[in-house]
Amino acid sequence: MKRETENTLLLLVGISIAMITVTGAFTRYVKPGLLPVLVASAVLLIGLALAAIVGDIRRGGPLEHGDHGEDVQGHSHRSGMVWLLLLPILVLIFVTPPALRPSAAAPSVTAVSNDVLNRAFPPIPPGRAPELSLPEVLMRQAQDTTDSLTNRTITVKGFVLNEAQGVDLGRIVIICCAADAQLARIHLRGPAAAQAAGLADNTWLLVEGEVKPEPRRPHTMVIPTFEATAVTRIDAPPNPYGYPR
Amino acid sequence: MEVLVFVLLAFAISATVLRKAVSNSAAFSTAGTVFCGVFVQAIPFLALGVVVSGLIAVFVSPERLARWLPRRPAVAVLVGGIGGAVLPGCECGSVPVGRRLFGETGAAGAAALTFMLAAPAINPVVLVATSVAFPGAPMMVVGRAAASLLTAVIMGWAWARWGRPEWVTRRLPRSVADTESRWVQFAEAARHDFLAAASYLVLGAAAAAALHVVVPRWVFDHLAAHLILGVVVMAALAVVLALCSEADAFVAASMTMVPLLPRLVFLVVGPAVDVKLFAMQAGMFGRAFAARFAPATFLVAIVSACAVGLLVLGGR
């Protein structure tokens, strides 16, 4: 592969990272906290590519390397592989795959944990019905030694999952990137659950209610039940994932 | 160059059609999203890695490194392993750094490989993430650091004893003439290492994405509480899922139906060997090297994780 083509590919990788960062599409793939380092990497890659391109032009030709024999061999070895970089460029710029859907997330979830993980959680914020993220509800239910969820009205955001036994409220949780996505879910029951029952899958809801207290059982998967008192339909949030912290 | 322009134009024209096709197929959109997830999240760590490897290319010649390290290889390997604690990042960045340290002749080869294996697992960022993920089990952090360091050191000693430099077929480009400024030397090394590592990262990310779609659900549902089966399944999952070493602790913490020992195996195997690391090692060191090094690392990592785990966790 020619050196100019390599430089162009490097420049394009930098530009594609910059593009998904600027448009916000990167939150479909990684956690939002990576924003500053993604900007820094895009700047670095574009900088390296421009430095090589500008340097070659000023020198009037590709950089001379110390020893030609080995260098030529080294290049012919990997010249084909560098074309692979075209794949992420094309996928990120032109296809930009959508955020994960519930069917794609691994079902194992922070539902119940070994007793060694139990700890005291910080108190739930004050207010009539403070909003907690769905993964936090599951973690408090499973691991909180202070039982902060008991007799406490909270608000939870999520999408509808119609199951045979009734409606579930779901949320896709990612820790670092889309590869570790998991599906968090809670059963919707109680007086207001009927309002959610007729809705299509993936309708977004804001649900108010209480988590039904349940005894903790180690080494078993228990999906907690949410006694809903009010259900509000909302638009899908711009960033569909939930984060454990 | 002409080919590149042509491909870009073709994709630009067909972008809407492609986008629709991908979002209509569940398997394609999942694979695409996981691919982007693995690739995008590795890029910052790879960028950090090539900056470090560029600096090594300028300031640390293999001869100088060999002078700094203790004369006896066995001790040098230990130093390399403990030195891994200073590179904060995950495994993608440590492969180019390890390759630079390895150098042309492999003078400090064993120590460089030990550093490459130890760095992603025992640096402070990863250990803090592990302790956050397992708040009630501080022994997981101790076990992870000890077992990963043990794996790295054993592999370093094994390389010093049995390793052959001729397995490393990929050569680094000769550093540019010394007459060039240090900045040019740095930029050239970083540019080369990024292109070489990132193109193999693409291969690894694609493999991880495909396996994500293929690995059947019941593997997760039936991750048995059986100890030995759990160890084998979790070790295989660590290779297949190719998670970042800063995230794997949280995934392991969420696999609540598995005892702690198999989860420790997951945390030790993952940063040392997985599909994307195998691809990147093949790209930067050569296929003959990766085909021997990766399976050996896999076995050593399982054995040392089990040994350390039985010691500190007692088979929980």
Q: Which SSEs are present, and which pair or pack?
A:
The complex is a heterodimer of chains A (245) and B (316).
Chain A: H1 3-23, H2 35-59, H3 68-82, H4 86-95, E1 131-132, H5 134-143, E2 154-163, E3 166-173, E4 182-189, H6 193-197, E5 204-211, E6 225-233
Parallel strand pairs in A: 1-2, 4-6
Antiparallel strand pairs in A: 2-3, 2-5, 3-4, 5-6
Helix pairs in contact in A: 1-2, 1-4
Chain B: H1 2-13, H2 15-24, H3 26-59, H4 62-68, H5 73-83, H6 91-102, H7 109-122, H8 124-133, H9 138-162, H10 182-214, H11 218-221, H12 227-241, H13 248-254, H14 260-272, H15 275-284, H16 287-312
Helix pairs in contact in B: 2-3, 3-6, 3-10, 5-7, 5-9, 6-7, 6-15, 7-9, 7-14, 8-9, 8-13, 9-14, 9-16, 10-15, 12-14, 13-14, 14-16, 15-16
Note down, in words, how this protein is organized.
The complex is a heterodimer of chains A (245) and B (316). Chain A is of the alpha/beta class. Chain A folds into 2 domains: 3-97, no CATH class; 104-233, OB fold (Dihydrolipoamide Acetyltransferase, E2P) (Beta Barrel), CATH 2.40.50. Chain A has helices at residues 3-23, 35-59, 68-82, 86-95, 134-143, 193-197, and strands at residues 131-132, 154-163, 166-173, 182-189, 204-211, 225-233. In chain A, β2 and β3 form a beta hairpin. Chain B has 316 residues and is mainly alpha-helical. Chain B has one domain. Chain B has helices at residues 2-13, 15-24, 26-59, 62-68, 73-83, 91-102, 109-122, 124-133, 138-162, 182-214, 218-221, 227-241, 248-254, 260-272, 275-284, 287-312. In chain B, α7 (109-122) crosses α14 (260-272) and α13 packs antiparallel against α14 (260-272). The N and C termini of chain B lie far apart (58 Å). At the A-B interface, α1, α2, α3 and α4 of A face α1, α2, α3, α10 and α13 of B.
